[in-house]
Design goal:
By secondary structure, the chain is mainly alpha-helical. The chain is built from 5 helices and 2 strands. It has a two-stranded antiparallel ribbon. The longest helix is centred in the first third of the chain and has 25 residues, at about 5-30. The chain is elongated.
């Protein structure tokens, strides 16, 4: 069997959490609710009348997707390859997601992804070169002439 590459696994978990956080933020615009409102009502000002927490979650979710699936000119930069930077920034995403009622699941996914990143980091894993993460959409033609798109990670 092959060896588990933990930073790739964590990357997929964080992408899932980021997309889920974006969806939770969008849902939070329609149904604003703080998860911890059963303990205190003091945090309700963060979601209504001005949706500050939803905007923060939306921006952090977009940032997470952009960091894990970077454009070609950003892939391979020092900040993109840094697992340490991810372990510093993603707790902010966890905190923002955990405060929003709709964001509790992405907060848990972020925690799991950060745990896997830390596991890989503690075993000495590093990110590969920039060419590993370029996503190219190729159009393939089958023998019947049908065309479909396929993601080719080269």
């Amino acid at each position: 069997m092959g060896k588990l590459i933990k930073n790739h696994w964590a990357r997929l978990i964080i992408i899932t959490a980021s997309i889920y956080q974006i969806a939770a933020a969008l849902e939070g615009f329609f149904w604003p609710k703080i998860f911890w409102d059963f303990i205190t009502k003091n945090l309700d000002g963060a979601v209504k009348p001005i949706p500050v927490l939803q905007i923060i979650n939306l921006l952090l979710g977009i940032f997470g997707v952009a960091w894990e699936l970077p454009l070609k000119y950003l892939a391979g930069t020092t900040i993109h390859r840094s697992i340490e930077a991810r372990l510093v920034v993603y707790p902010l995403s966890v905190l923002a997601a955990a405060l929003l009622y709709q964001g509790t699941n992405p907060a848990l996914y972020y925690l799991i992804g950060m745990g896997v990143y830390f596991w890989g980091y503690s075993e000495g894993e590093v990110y590969l070169e920039a060419s590993t993460y370029f996503l190219n959409l190729q159009v393939l033609t089958t023998s019947s002439g049908c065309m479909f798109g396929a993601l080719d990670v080269t």
